[in-house]
């Protein structure tokens, strides 16, 4: 896990669309903090600071230090509403965490050794069916991501949800079907170029192709 992110919030008392619009005009994002066996509390956070932190993938799946009215509470980001056409966040939800209560979170998948896997070296193309999975765990066990090692995946092979190597204390939720394909390597259709093939042809010219 990385260093904990810090979110500074201020309490707010006015609800409704009109109050939320006024906050946004002031450069603030309306939000709510709930859970942790306490009443929900309406808050606001600085848009510029929140938007900066959203550039970090780990922000979405890490414990966050929420500073509010002189107190610090650990929370996780549970919901984020963005403007449909503009680079603005219009609402944010945080959930308080308790050391004894399990969290239900979506965490990203990191595909390791993809460009050097057996199947890609043989000219295969990679197809990602999932980019994140839903897990349950105690806050202390929350991973930033789940690693998927593709080094030995051959052309025609797949990695299923049941094949994922989960950190200790982490379980998949019942929403994840064990036989769901996570990623596969397939033989490209006629005329379809692959990253692996292009990489081999361009190797002499020093051209590396970086996967997404």
TrEMBL record:
Residues 102-188 form the Large ribosomal subunit protein bL25 beta domain. GO terms for cellular component: ribosome. Pfam families: Ribosomal_L25p, Ribosomal_TL5_C. Residues 192-203 have a biased composition (Acidic residues). Keywords: Ribonucleoprotein, Ribosomal protein, RNA-binding, rRNA-binding. The keyword Ribonucleoprotein applies. Residues 1-20, 192-212 are annotated as: Disordered. InterPro entries: Rbsml_bL25/Gln-tRNA_synth_N, Ribosomal_bL25/Gln-tRNA_synth, Ribosomal_bL25_b-dom, Ribosomal_bL25_C, Ribosomal_bL25_long, Ribosomal_bL25_short, Ribosomal_L25_dom, Ribosomal_uL5_bac-type. SUPFAM superfamilies: Ribosomal protein L25-like. Residues 9-94 form the Large ribosomal subunit protein bL25 L25 domain. Gene3D superfamilies: Ribosomal protein L25, beta domain (2.170.120.20), Ribosomal Protein L25, Chain P (2.40.240.10). It comes from the Bacteria. Belongs to the bacterial ribosomal protein bL25 family. CTC subfamily. This is one of the proteins that binds to the 5S RNA in the ribosome where it forms part of the central protuberance. PANTHER family: RIBOSOMAL PROTEIN L25/GLN-TRNA SYNTHETASE, ANTI-CODON-BINDING DOMAIN-CONTAINING PROTEIN, RIBOSOMAL PROTEIN L25_GLN-TRNA SYNTHETASE, ANTI-CODON-BINDING DOMAIN-CONTAINING PROTEIN. Part of the 50S ribosomal subunit; part of the 5S rRNA/L5/L18/L25 subcomplex. Contacts the 5S rRNA. Binds to the 5S rRNA independently of L5 and L18. This is Large ribosomal subunit protein bL25. The lineage of its organism: Bacteria, Pseudomonadati, Pseudomonadota, Gammaproteobacteria, Chromatiales. The gene is rplY.
């Amino acid at each position: 896990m990385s260093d904990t992110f810090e979110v500074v919030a201020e309490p707010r008392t006015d609800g409704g669309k009109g109050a939320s619009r006024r906050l946004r005009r002031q450069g603030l994002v309306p939000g709510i903090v709930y859970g942790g066996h306490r009443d929900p509390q309406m808050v606001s956070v600085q848009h510029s600071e929140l938007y900066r932190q959203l550039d970090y993938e780990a922000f979405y799946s890490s414990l966050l230090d929420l500073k509010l009215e002189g107190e610090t509470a650990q929370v996780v980001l549970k919901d984020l509403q963005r403007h449909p056409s503009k680079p603005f966040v219009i609402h944010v939800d945080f959930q308080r965490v308790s050391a004894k209560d399990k969290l239900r979170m979506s965490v990203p998948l990191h595909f390791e050794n993809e460009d050097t896997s057996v199947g890609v070296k043989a000219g295969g193309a990679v197809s990602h069916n999932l980019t994140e999975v839903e897990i349950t765990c105690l806050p202390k066990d929350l991973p930033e991501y789940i690693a998927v090692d593709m080094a030995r995946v051959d052309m025609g092979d797949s990695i299923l949800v049941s094949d994922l190597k989960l950190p200790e204390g982490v379980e998949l939720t019942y929403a994840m079907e064990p036989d769901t394909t996570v990623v596969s390597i397939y033989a490209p259709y006629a005329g379809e170029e692959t990253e692996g093939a292009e990489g081999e042809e361009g190797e002499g010219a020093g051209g590396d192709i970086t996967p997404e």
